[in-house]
Amino acid sequence: MSDKTKGIVAVSVGSIFLGSIGIFVRYAGSSIEPMMQSFGRIFFAFIFITIYNLIKNKGSLEIFKIKSKDYGLFILNGLVGFSAMAAAFTLSVLYTSIANTYFLLYTAPVWVVILSYIFLKEKIHPSTLIAIAVSLTGLFLLFNPSDIYGNLLGNVFGVIVGIAFGSYFVITGILRRFYSSPIVTFWTQFIGSLGLFPLIYLFDNKFQFTHTIQEWLPVVGAGAVVFIGYALLNYGLGKIKASMGSILSLFEPLSAVMYGLIFFSEVPGLTALVGSMFILGGIVYLTTYQKS
C-alpha cells in the first residue's frame, strides 16, 4: 500500500469516526451545557492521547521535543482549529439555522485550497476544483441551507467556522512534515482544551462540573472518538495534501446521516440521499483522478 493510499484510508476512516460524535451529544442531552461538552470532548481526547504517548514512548519526553520556531504553529492550530472553531460554531448556531452552520462548516475544502495557494504556494488542480464543486452541490442538497444573506451575523460566524476548520488541515499538513501524528495530536488537543475552558463562562448558562458518571459517560465516549478520529486524520495529512484531506473529511457528514439512520431511525429524505451521492461522487472522482 502506497503512502498516498494510507493517507486516503486514514483520513477517510478518521472522518467516519468523527461523524459519530452526534450520537454521544444526543445521549448526553441537555444535562451538560454545550460548551462544557465541547471542552470535555477535547479534554478527554487529550487524556487518551497522553496515555497513548506514555505507553508508546515508555515514559520518554519525545512529545516535548519541539523546535521553538514551531511553537506558533502549534498554538495557532490548537486555538484556531479547535477553540475558535468551537466558539464560532456555537455563535453561528445561536444566530442562524443549524443547517446553515453545518453547510458553512463543510465549505472548509474551499478555504483549504485558498489558504494552501496563499501560504504554501500549492498549485490549484482542475480535478480539485471539480471535486469541490460537486461536493458543495451535494452539501447544499444535504443540509438545504436557507436565507444565507438574511441571517448575516450567524452566517458570518459560520464562514469563520469553515475557515478555522480549513486552517486546521493546512497547519496540520505543515506540522506533519516534521512531527509524528501523536505529537501533533497531543499538542493541538492540549492547547485546544485550554482555549475552550474560558469559553464555558461566556456561552453556557451555568458552570457545573459536578455531574453524575452516567452524564459524563457520553462525553468521555465522544472524547475517545475525537482522539481516534484526529489521530487518524493527523496521520493521513502527513501522507496527502491538505486539499485532498479536506474533501475526504466530507465522509464525516455522510457518516453522520448513516449513524442517524442506524441509532435514531432518522430516515434521510430523497434530497439528502441525492446530496450524499454528489458528495460521494466528488470524493471518488478526486481520489481516482489523483491516484491515476
Features:
292 residues; transmembrane helix; 77% helix; mainly alpha; globular
Account of the protein in words:
The protein is mostly helical. It has one domain. It is built from 13 helices and no strands. Helix 1 packs antiparallel against helix 10 and helix 2 packs antiparallel against helix 10. The protein is globular.
Short description:
This is EamA domain-containing protein. The protein has 292 residues and is mainly alpha-helical.
Number of distinct helices = 13
Mean pLDDT: 90
Unreliable residue stretches: none
The major sheet is characterized as: none
Topology of this structure?
Blueprint (H helix, E strand, L loop, with lengths): L2 H16 L2 H8 L5 H24 L13 H25 L2 H8 L2 H12 L6 H18 L8 H24 L5 H23 L9 H24 L5 H7 L2 H14 L5 H22 L1
